[in-house]
């Protein structure tokens, strides 16, 4: 499975169960609106260090390859706006606590914060978080409130609804197909046997 197929599967499986009652089209439209707002605003919830940590984690989840990654899609700004305007206070606090836990894990294991750690150290921290998440999922525990579950979900959602992700990765076309500006209107009003 290539990266594009993986993102489609993850996007569909992550978005629909998490937000019942909302169609994929509505979720996509909401994501695009959030990106448009995030581009025109400064950080509202995350401080610069937290924003860089979110951007670094998101880039590790969806790295730059032959197509742009999560950082180019400005997923960190997308997440900041969601935290500011959509997240209830307790969800925002849980996310920020989880973000602080990532730094605490880095300090305990490596004596530095997450963004100052080496690439291998960062990957080790995220691998441990992902292993814990998988263990809880296999035990049929509710994992939605776990930081890394939310971080992965928000990264995929933010990436797939960004202009970069939608066009470069998913090849989204606003108007699919071709435009034929010279259509004979008489032909469109003809009856079924007239063609």
Quick structural summary:
This protein has 195 residues and is mostly helical. It has helices at 3-18, 24-39, 48-61, 75-85, 89-110, 119-138, 147-160, 163-169, 185-188.
Keywords:
about 200 residues; mainly alpha; 9 helices; about 65% helix
Alpha-beta content class:
mainly alpha
Low-confidence regions: 1-20, 188-195
Q: Helix count, per DSSP?
A: 9
The biggest beta sheet reads: none
Rounded to an integer in angstroms, the radius of gyration calculated over CA atoms is: 20 Å
Description:
- With 195 residues, the chain is an all-alpha fold.
- Helix content is 64%, strand content 0%.
- The protein contains nine helices and no strands.
- It has helices spanning 3-18, 24-39, 48-61, 75-85, 89-110, 119-138, 147-160, 163-169, 185-188.
- Helix 4 crosses helix 7.
- It is globular and about 40 Å long.
- The termini are far apart.
- The relative contact order is 0.15.
What topology does this entry show?
Elements: H1 3-18, H2 24-39, H3 48-61, H4 75-85, H5 89-110, H6 119-138, H7 147-160, H8 163-169, H9 185-188
Helix pairs in contact: 1-7, 2-4, 3-4, 3-7, 4-7, 5-6, 5-7
């Amino acid at each position: 499975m290539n990266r594009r197929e993986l993102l489609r599967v993850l996007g569909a499986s992550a978005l629909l169960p998490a937000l019942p009652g909302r169609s994929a089209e509505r979720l996509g439209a909401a994501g695009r609106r959030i990106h448009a707002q995030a581009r025109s605003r400064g950080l509202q919830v995350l401080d610069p260090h937290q924003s860089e940590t979110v951007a670094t984690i998101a880039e590790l989840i969806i790295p730059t390859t032959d197509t742009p990654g999560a950082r180019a899609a400005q997923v960190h700004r997308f997440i900041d706006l969601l935290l500011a305007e959509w997240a209830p206070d307790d969800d925002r606090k849980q996310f920020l606590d989880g973000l602080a836990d990532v730094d605490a894990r880095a300090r305990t294991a490596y004596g530095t914060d997450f963004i100052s750690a080496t690439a291998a150290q960062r990957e080790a921290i995220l691998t441990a978080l992902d292993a814990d998440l998988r263990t809880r999922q296999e035990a049929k525990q509710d994992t939605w409130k776990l930081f890394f579950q939310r971080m992965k979900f928000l990264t995929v959602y933010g990436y797939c609804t960004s202009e970069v992700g939608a066009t470069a990765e998913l090849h989204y076309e606003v108007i699919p197909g071709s435009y034929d500006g010279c259509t004979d209107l008489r032909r469109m009003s003809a009856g079924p046997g007239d063609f």
